[in-house]
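Morning!

This is the sequence you dropped in the shared folder:
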Amino acid sequence: MVLESIISPEKAENKPWETFFIGFAYMTIAIVLSLWIFEDEASMVMVFLVVIASIPLVYNTMNFEESKDMLISKESSLLKEHNKAVSFLMFLFLGTTAASVLFYVLLPADTVNTLFEKQSSTIEKINKRISGNFSSSAAALVEIFFNNLKVLIFSILFSFIYGTGAIFILTWNSTVIAAAIGNTIRTKLSSLISSMGLTHIASYFHTISYGLLKYSVHGIPEIMSYFYGGLAGGILSTAIIRKHYKTDLFNHIMLDFFEILLLSLAFLGVAAFLEVYITPLLF
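The structure's back. Tokens below.
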């Protein structure tokens, strides 16, 4: 398969930043093809095309990480190895997000509405759900945490059942976040359209930074939580497929599974805290 030869988990762990450009390329190709061939359903087709392109790398990564459980007994060393996988997968996610934001900002409004139709609808539903009058910030924290917990559970289940299923959840979230960032940037830029002089270059770049940072503060730990959850589900799925549950090392694999799961919950808690208490202060 051609895509399998682009990069391997071993190479990605040594140069994780390279997967940013791979993710950017995957999303760019997916957007072009979806608008060209499946324009009416482009908002979902682009997600599936990126998922298809990412499957070889994600599948090999799950196998590679599960094999480490069979070779490394020290938990701290094993978790450090898993962090390498999460690192390059995070760069892959950032690449798909960056490409989506770029197209959202540069394409005509009508095309953007078609390309991100489902994502924009999802954002509207989320805003309606969390914009209610909470009795306290603690209530908002609990609401956001449990909403994100549902996504984490789906990431684990999809990865366990389908092996690489979590990549669909993550790619979908990538396009939703990109739509939110892109909409923020377009809205801010609209106030600068009438002022194109050199004195407004700083304002232009400030607008781009504002849109990116607003969602990155809590978005990065939130997505890392989903990656850890997907990795945990993928490792367990691979262990069962390889029948490692019949070996003495399966208890070690299960311990690793629960440690990664706890780590994903910790990141989810941090993300919810940042979204409720920090992001509103900064933006």
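Headline: The longest helix spans residues 201-241.

More detail when I'm at my desk.
O.
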